[in-house]
Amino acid sequence: MFKKFNIKEDVTGHTQVKSSVQRAIRAKILEQYKEGIEGIIDDVMPKKSPLILMKCHEHINLIVMNNEVLFFNHFDGPYFPTLKLLHKYPNMLPRLQVDRGAIKFVMAGANIMCPGLTSKGARMDVSVPADAVVAITAEGKNEILAVGTTKMSTDDIKRINKNIGVETAHYLNDYLWKTVVDI
Amino acid sequence: MDSPDAPSSEHVKPREVPYCGFCSLPPEYCEFGPTLEKCKHWLSRNDKVLYAILYNTLDDQLAAASLGETPEEDKKKAKEAAKIEKQLQKKMQSKVLIKRIERTKRKCVTSVFGLENFDVDLKKAAKLFANKFACGSSVTKNNQGNDEIVVQGDVSDEIFDLILEHWPIVPEDNIDLIEDKKKGK
Question: What is the residue range of the signal peptide feature (chain A) (predicted)?
């Protein structure tokens, strides 16, 4: 999603949203992440701070607060937390671990293939349904490497062990990572 | 959500994650960036403890890993590193021109050119100048089609100081002051 992205060219406009819209976004995020975020939502998105919605090309929305991108989504899709946010609160999302060999490709923007999630260095300790937002960590690393949506459930990943397992939305060192928002 | 009985133990504090000052990745991922050597250098100066943890064990691994890496990949990496280096050098060489342009005999404007090479938001900078010097200041396109900031009034020396103070990444030697006198009628 952010293989090519330039904040100057690809943002069509940014607005401070109405408080009702802000509440709606907040409710949607809460519903989406439930336990993962309940304890921290007030820290992540204080109710009173102004929330800025940046509309970008290809229906990508960035949710910005205090000059920090917190979430992004595509069209009406699920909200993904950015990696900077995830590094602060790593327990927000279920985590899957890829093996060491996959890191290089993930950081070049590749989707995560099933074998990368089932091989020796990889771990899938949680069971996740298809189309869920997950964080990707890596063998031997503490920090989160990427965020994406599962294309099939973890059980299927184990069983089929072919094709794309997790579709990468945002990864370390992509253009969203490098973007500095300054409004 | 405002329930006062929420146990405080549930309150999760944000983790502080250090980021590499060179490539902005968490240091443990530096090895996958194109600028490992620079990152190592930065980390060894800024966080000795982490450096020791990461690279003492890592060096062995890396040695093993690089054996498996094809020369083609090595070349690719080197190319990328060179590209980044080049960009950085270009950035460091680019000049900022502060030009005093005479309008009439005793009135003039100051134009600032080349700030955008240092990732300065020109609109913000113009606003800052306007606030600071209490005068008109705007971003305009000059006849080459490049953006520059035009400040009304002769404030070149002040702008020089202000740029140094406000954007420390701009090296002092790269700022040039020029006077542009209109030829007398």
Answer: none
* Alpha carbons within 13 A on the beta-carbon side of B21: 8
Q: What is the pLDDT of residue B7?
A: 39
Residues 152-181 on A with a CB inside 8 Å of B are 172-173, 177-178
DSSP string of B1-12, one letter each residue = ---TT--GGG-P
pLDDT < 50 stretches in chain A: none
Q: If you average pLDDT over each of A2-11, A135-144, B27-36, B111-120, which comes out highest?
A: A135-144
Residue (of B52, B36, B73, B32) closest to A145 by Cα position: B32
CB contact under 8 A, A39 and B14: no
**Which residues in chain B have their CB less than 8 angstroms from residue A145's CB?**
29
Quote the CA–CA distance of B144 and B71 in Å, as a whole number. 44
Going from the N-terminus, what domains does chain A have, and what CATH number goes with each? 7-88 (3.10.400.20), 93-171 (3.10.400.20)
From A77, A82, A73, A81, select the one nearest A54 (Cα to Cα). Answer: A73
ipTM rounded to 2 decimals: 0.78
* Residue B126: burial class (beta carbons within 10 Å; 0-12, 13-18, 19+): buried
Residues A31 and A12 sit within 8 Å (Cβ to Cβ): no
Q: Which CATH code for domain B94-180? A: 3.30.780.10
Please tell me the predicted confidence (pLDDT) of residue A146.
Answer: 92
Question: Does residue B6 have a pLDDT over 60?
Answer: no
Exposure class string for A108-129: b at 16+ Cβ within 10 A, else e: ebebbbbbbbbeeebebeeebe
Q: pLDDT for B53-87, tens place per residue?
A: 877 665 555 555 554 556 666 777 777 778 878 87
